[in-house]
Amino acid sequence: MKIFSRFAIFVGLGVLLSGCAASSPTFLNSASLIAGHEASLYWEIFIETLIIFILIIGAFIWIFIRDRDRGGKKIVPPQIYGKLAWAAVPLLAIVLLDGADFVAMARTMFAVAPPAASSQDIQLHVIGHRWWWEFDYKDQNIVTANELHIPVGATVQITLDSVDVIHSFWVPQLTGKTDVIPGQTNHMWITSDQIGEFLGQCTEFCGTEHAMMRIKAVVQSQADFDAWVANQQKPAAQPKTDLEQAGHTTVTTLCASCHSLNPAEPEEKTGPNLTHLFSRSIFAGGTYDLNDANLRSWLKDPQAMKPGNDMGVTLSPAQIDQLAAYLELLK
Amino acid sequence: MTTQAQAKLKTEPYALGDFLSWIMTVDHKRIGILYLITAFFFFLFGGIEAFLMRLQLAQPGNKVLSPDLYNQVFTMHGTTMIFLAVMPLAAGFGNYLVPLMIGARDMAFPKLNALSYWTYLFAGCFMYSSFFLGGAPNDGWFSYAPLTENLYSPTHGMDFWIMGILLLGFATTIGSINFIVTIIQLRAPGMTLTRMPAFVWAQFVTAFLAVFSIPSLTTAVLLLLLDRQMGAHFFNVAQGGSALLWQHLFWFFGHPEVYILILPAMGIVSEVIPVFSGKPLFAYAAVVYAMIAIGFLGFTVWAHHMFATGMPTTTLLFFAGDTFLISAPTGVLFFSWLATIWKGQLRFTTPMLFSLGFATMFLIGGLDGVHLAVVPMDWQLTDTYYVVSHIHYVLFGGAIFGIFSGIYYWFPKMAGRRLGETLGKWHFWFFFIGMNLVFMPMHILGLEGMPRRIYTYASGRGWEIWNLVETIGAGVIAIGVLIFIVNFFISISKKATNEEDAWDGFTLEWKTSSPPPAYNFAEIPSVRSRRPLWDEKHPDLADWKMEK
Fold first, then answer.
1. Which of A321, B77, B116, B281 sits at 20 to 30 Å (Cα–Cα) from B193?
2. CA of B340: which chain A residue's CA is closest?
3. B242 touching A, CB under 8 A?
4. Whole-angstrom Cα distance, residue B445 to residue A19?
């Protein structure tokens, strides 16, 4: 079976590699044990169905060529009625193949089943909002958004909840998707054996900006992860200049109705936690790179960058300068 | 009535001269034609919506449609193609052909038949009017709760959708009961159940599927209507409702619905392939049992649409295994079609090309369906473009190819003249190449992680090139549709030939004039086998001597 699946992977890659770009977030370019199992299962079944396809299409084309009406005189072809018993041929063949597929499927499902819980596990609470992701690390007292961090090799136990409609959490190179359903807490687990950044996004239609509800998973070394945790646990940076002070005032008044400046505050508010906003590389549901220019144009008109999102404020150019000055401190 | 008018009525019973007679008609053939024409218009609407989506997705960040308009358009594309195009196209063929094929003078309940059509037309127009009355429905043809609740969908689009679906469910249910009673009660002498054409069997099974699955959809939309209009909270989680309840109710209808869409096309193909092979349908009994088995199994697999909702492993394995089983009867159909063309004298006419196109494209849709049935692969591939590819190989490469095969095949019967063969073949190849350009790259996009139902996408993930190819493919399909329309108008502008038996057919509809008179048969035929016309043409090789 192992030789077969190696062979399958080899041939399959040859067929499709030209199609799948190296930069794609595809599970076929897996970064975890789970996605790796799913990828080899895919290639096994892909090769099986490809062979069936070639055999049947080959039979059709062969008969097309051999038995086509050559425009000569009209003949009466042999009238073959076919007894019911003939159905046994396709039935037997297919039931055998189905059985093989079922075994391969069950084997993979047990291989990717969640491991027994351990105190070493990282507990991650994923909360779906229209249209951004909240990531709460319970044991670390961290609340962040859109960009999640995990240490390489660690087992991450995830619970998923939604505050509004159904979403679905998917980072293909780490694992398949699990729906995020209001009123029902779902569970999944991930692990990664590769340092890097892996992209994903919401895959259950959740309204206007479903397209702009993306995820970046950052897999880093244990040391880098620890440093990230330590930084996230710090309180929000204090303003120093007058400009920053004015920005801070706005954040704690106007913005505070939707955004929190407390690193551990679980999100009951509408928008993402801002405490370490500029430690993240993306914002607006993971859609845009977070930099000064994008931040300013967002503050100027969030509806232009992401029509339909919940943020609707009118800020003066002076306020935008103040806010940008303060928010960019929040590393 | 003068003799001249009588003669005219005989050769041109569908002349448009008397507009009122089309409104008042209860003739199953006229109603069938009304269904086909109306559904073709909705097919064009759905196609235009598809084309708009392809323009929007041709490159990342396009602004052809606003996010909300895109969501309205993809919702109406799915709703239109399923409820307003493919189902009524199949119903049109059923109406026109079932009474002719079983040797009856009309459907069992002609007035109900008319009611069914007019309800459908009204429901379609009603749903489309929402575009001008505050916005079309925008939560997808599947309308998952709780997104459909007032809080998240405040426009009346969803209410239009709910009322439209209720009306369409009503129309389909009475239409299906009409088919069931007609087929049970009105068969000509000797037309036993085991001698019925495969197409009639397909309509028979389809009618049962509709009667048993639509109540689940009706229940779901009624509960949603109560939620939206009267403050109930069946799907309102905050008040103790359940989000997943909708999915169970919807897919208990939604999966049989797939077979409601595809079985009539399988029936058409099972008529066309034998005629153009000059042979009987191989192992007819196996084909009939397979269609019945597909119908039954179709009711037991609904939760395979919900593999990512967090179901326990046992449930996952059950629904996956059950889904695998559907490949068995489907394989029997392929085996029969292959054995039917085996050693035949194959005439590659336009109807035959579309039927063989069905067989090959539906094969792809079946095989990538196996990929989706495998649970861990479904976790990766569900709600991506892989699924979009799968359903379009089944419903475009399958159902639509089967329906166009039927249009080319029975047009001479309905209109008294053929559609042009040359243009027909151009139409076929534009469709065949176009659909593969659109839908084959969707497999790759799904594998590459592109979700469906997104109005725009990020650049730099390898998705741009395939999206562009798909948009070009959509243009190729659009040209195919235009060729068909031109072909249609050229054909009806020519003089009618009124040939009775245009293709050397086997079944009873070819035994009467083209188009048939209002009463179908001057004398009700009596039937001794599955191919009454073959028996007449080949008395030495008559089926009733050979069949068991």
1. B116
2. A80
3. yes
4. 9
| B378: contact with A, CB 8 A cutoff | yes
B328 vs A94: CB contact, 8 Å cut-off? Answer: yes
- Cβ–Cβ contacts within 10 Å for residue B37, how many? 10
pLDDT at A13 exceeding the cut of 70: no
Asked if B438 and B392 count as a contact pair (C-beta separation under 8 A), the reply is yes
Give the CA angle between residues B258, A165, A181 to the nearest 5°: 80
Closest CB from A77, A177, A210 relative to B277: A77
The angle at the Cα of A232, spanning A231 to A236, to the nearest 5 degrees, equals 95
Closest chain A residue to B360, measured at CA: A57
CB contact under 8 A, B66 and A307: yes
Other C-beta atoms within 10 Å of B156: how many?
Answer: 17
Compute, in degrees rounded to 10, the torsion defined by CA atoms B447, B451, B455, B459. Answer: -50
Kindly report the number of other CB atoms within 10 A of residue A221's CB atom.
12
The ipTM of this complex is 0.93
Residue A169: strand pairing partners: A178
| Domain assignments of chain B as residue spans, ordered by start | 26-546
pLDDT digits (tens, 9 = 90+) for B468-481: 999 999 999 999 99
- The overall pTM is greater than 0.80: yes
Note whether B356 contacts A60, CB cutoff 8 Å: yes
H/E stretch holding A180 reads strand A175-180
B 92-131 residues inside an 8 A Cβ radius of A: none
Taking the C-alpha atoms of residue B442 and residue B80, their distance in angstroms, rounded to an integer, is 21
Q: What is the pLDDT, as a whole number, of residue A313? A: 87
* Cα separation, B150 vs B152, whole angstroms: 5
Q: Do B289 and A84 count as a contact with CB atoms less than 8 A apart?
A: yes
B73: chain A residues, CB-CB within 8 Å = none
Residue ranges and CATH numbers for the domains of chain A are 2-69+79-111 (no CATH), 120-331 (2.60.40.420)
Contact A168 B454 (CB under 8 A): no
Does an H or E element contain A125, and which?
Answer: strand A122-129
Amino acid in the structure at residue A239 = P
A257/A280 Cα distance (integer angstroms): 22
Average pLDDT over residues B190-213: 97
The bridge status of strand A132-137 relative to strand A122-129 is antiparallel
Cis peptide before A90 (omega within 30 of 0): no
- Superfamily of segment(s) B26-546: Cytochrome c oxidase-like, subunit I domain (1.20.210.10)
Listed in sequence order, the residues at least 6 apart from A97 whose beta carbon sits closer than 8 Å to its beta carbon are A48, A52, B327
What's the rounded Cα separation, in Å, for the pair A178 and A167?
9
**For the CA atoms of B518, B522, B528, B532, what is the dihedral angle to 10 degrees?**
-70
Cβ contacts below 8 Å, chain A against chain B, sum to 287
Q: What is the pLDDT of residues A188-208, one digit of tens each?
A: 999 999 999 999 999 999 999
- The predicted model gives A269-283 an average pLDDT of 92
Residue A328 CB coordination number (10 Å): 17
Q: From CA B342, how far away is CA B336, in angstroms rounded? A: 10
Contact B225, B142 (CB under 8 A): no
B232 touches chain A (CB under 8 A): no
**Separation of alpha carbons B265 and B365, rounded Å:** 14
Q: Do B341 and A67 touch (CB under 8 A)?
A: yes
B 143-172 near A (Cβ less than 8 A):
144, 146-147, 152-153
Radius of gyration of chain B (CA): 23
User: Across the interface, do B463 and A89 touch by the CB < 8 Å criterion?
Assistant: no
Distance, in angstroms, between B360 CA and closest chain A CA?
Answer: 7
Kindly state whether B139 is in contact with chain A, defined as any CB-CB distance less than 8 angstroms: yes
Chain B residues in contact with A105 (beta carbon < 8 A): 317, 320, 374-376
